[in-house]
Structure formats: C-alpha cells, structure tokens
Amino acid sequence: MDQSSRVTITDVARTAGVSVATVSKVINERYGVAASTSARVQKVIDELGYESSLVARSLRSHRTNVIGILVAEFEPFSTEILKGVSAAIAGTGYELLAYSGGGRAGSEVGWEKRYLSRLSGTLIDGALLVTPTVVDVRGIVPVVAIDPHTGPSGLPTVDSDNLTGGILATEHLLGLGHRRIAFLGGRADLESARLREQGYRVALERAGVPFDPALVANGGYRRETAREPATALLSAADRPTAVFAANDLSALGVMDAAADLGLTIPGDLSLVGFDNVPESALTTPPLTTVNQPIQRMGSEAIGLLTRLLDGQTVEQTHVRLPTSLVERGSTRAL
Fold first, then answer.
1. What is the rounded distance in angstroms from the CA atom of residue 222 to the CA atom of residue 63?
2. Distance in angstroms (rounded) separating the CA atoms of residues 167 and 163
3. For 157-202, how does the pLDDT look when each residue is reduced to its tens digit (9 = 90+)?
4. Which of 6, 7, 8, 166 has the largest count of CB atoms under 10 Å?
5. CA gyration radius for the chain?
6. What share of the chain is helix, strand, coil (3-state, %, to 5)?
C-alpha cells in the first residue's frame, strides 16, 4: 500500500482479513466481534495508523469531541493562550483544533462568525474565541470568549483585571519619581486598551499629576506600529521621562524608537509594558511589565467550555483574573 496516501477503513479490513463492517464494530466498540478478531483488527489499526475522519465521527455520533480555538493570528498573546489551553485539555477526552485566518482576520470585524460557520457541526463541538471583535455568535455551538474586544457580554467570558494593571504600571513609575509619564495605548476598539488607559489616568489623578493629552499616543498593540508614535513622543522638546506601553509588543517598539534616538533604557527613559509574554524577559534590559496570567486565561476558558459541553450548570460565566507588576531592569528612579 502507498504509505503517502490516507489509510482508509477498507485498508484496515483488507490487511486484517475481515469485513469493513467488522472493523467498524471494533472502532465503535460494538458487540458481535470475537475477542481474538478484535485484537487482530486493533493491532492492524495501530500498525497502519488508521484514524477515522472528524466528519465521519460527527455523522455517526453527532459529536467530534474536538474543541476549536479561533484566533485572528498567532502572536505572543494567543500563543500563550494556546499553551494554557493545551495543558488544561489533557485528560478531558477532548481534542484541540487551532484555527487562524493567518493575520487577515485581524482587521475584519465579524471574523468569528465566518470561522465558526466553517467549523461547526462537522469539525468542532465548541469553540474558544481569542480577542473576538463580536460576541453575537450564540446558537452555533457553545462558545467562550477570551478577552473580547467589547468586554464581558452575555457570552461566557474570561479576561484579566486591565484597570488595576494600568494603575499598577503607572503607580510604579510615579513611585520612582516620574511625573512626565507617556501612555502608548492599544487599539481604540479594544476594551482592554481602554481600561489600561483608564488605569493610567486614575493613577495620575490619585497622585495629583495633571493629565496631559500630548503624552498619549496609539501604538496599535504591535511592535512595528508602535515605533513611529513612540518616536514622536520621545522627540518632543519636553519629552517624557517614562512610558507605560499598553502591551509588551508596543514596549518593544518604544525600545526601537529610543535606540534610534540614542536614548538609553533605563538611563534616559523608564519603560513599563503589559502582558508579561516570554519575550519581555529577553529584552535588553529585561522589561518591567504587568503580568496578566495569560496561560491561566486559556485553562479557565477550557474549564468553562468543557462544563458547558458536558451539560453542567455554570454559575460563574465571567471569570476575571488578577494582574500584578513584574519589576525588571527597564525602570529606575528619576
């Protein structure tokens, strides 16, 4: 048999010397097959690496036991979510299918509905949506949203305490003596970005430091989009002595801009990020940042979804996880 082709149930039957119906009974653990025959068929299945298709499985049982995790693209945040989901799904009896639009969906509102319509019914029993732009997707399959753009809604949701995280980042810089603190925000359509800016403003107000709109810019949550607005902030005549970047990727863009301008971190500029993705500890200097438990967000979401799929009652449909400050080498006293 050509090993490059997909192994079929017919291949298994031919190799084992039994009928296709017998192989089907063994696969589906039905009665009517002698133990010795069943053992022989199972041995052939293992040797040939036969696996029934998800579509065939769903047609037989109306279940695939597969959970989809849908992301606009694979980047550090969604990758950490995937790590948490992968660890948590072990032992649940469910398999995981990760699906991405390859970055194309990032700027398209409503990508979740298109993805779900492709996968639901024959490929997945339920889905996790990572930073979805809309949450009006009920009635397709059970869904849990992770850090949705619009914040909590009627859909089961897992997120982190972005407001407190913004306060912690800004208070850290204030405590080091900084008063001209810039905020490099995220995407305007994201609730998480809005809450981080709100935390920045709350901390300034508590410290009696006037809010200066000239110190606020939008970095777009990406390293490449953050570089230009960061350069503008750091090129000002009365430039900030510190920057709170709304995510770690934006903070990397600030580092790029500072290097272009000959500014050292933390000598000339203190910098705080947000997320605590693995890359944040590998910068020079290592980045002070706000930790949101991203992997735990994934594991909590899987817990919610599997309980829904198993018909259990879910009392708490919104899980908000705490944030904390991680001090490293990118900040110092003024």
1. 38
2. 6
3. 999 999 999 999 999 999 999 999 999 998 777 889 999 999 999 9
4. 166
5. 25
6. 45, 15, 40
4-49: pLDDT as tens digits: 466 777 888 899 999 888 887 777 667 788 889 989 988 888 888 7
The candidate with the shortest Cα–Cα distance to 137, out of 153, 124, 123, 160, is 153
H-helix or E-strand containing 98? strand 95-100
pLDDT band at 136 (very low <50, low <70, confident <90, very high): low
Does residue 52 sit in helix, strand or coil? Answer: coil
> Is 60 exceeded by the pLDDT of residue 260?
yes
**Residue 266 half-sphere exposure toward CB, CA atoms < 13 A:** 21
Q: What is the pLDDT of residues 61-109, one digit of tens each?
A: 456 788 999 988 889 999 999 999 999 998 888 889 898 866 554 455 6
How far apart are alpha carbons 182 and 130 in whole angstroms? Answer: 28
Q: CB burial class (10 A; 0-12, 13-18, 19+) of residue 4? A: exposed
Q: Kindly give, in sequence order, each residue whose CB lies less than 8 Å from that of residue 62, ignoring residues fewer than 6 positions away.
A: none
> Among residues 1, 82, 111, which one has the least CA distance to residue 48?
1
Backbone φ and ψ of 161, nearest 5°: -85, 80
Q: Which residues of 175-199 are buried (b: 16+ CB within 10 A; e: fewer)?
A: ebebbbbbbbbbbeebbbbbbbbeb
Distance CA 316, CA 54 (A): 31
Residue whose pair of structure tokens reads 């192989």 in the numeric block? 23
d(CA 118, CA 137): 13
What percent of the chain is modeled with pLDDT above 90?
55
Enter the DSSP assignment of 288. E
70 beta partners:
99, 129
- Rounded Cα–Cα distance for residues 255 and 284 (Å): 9
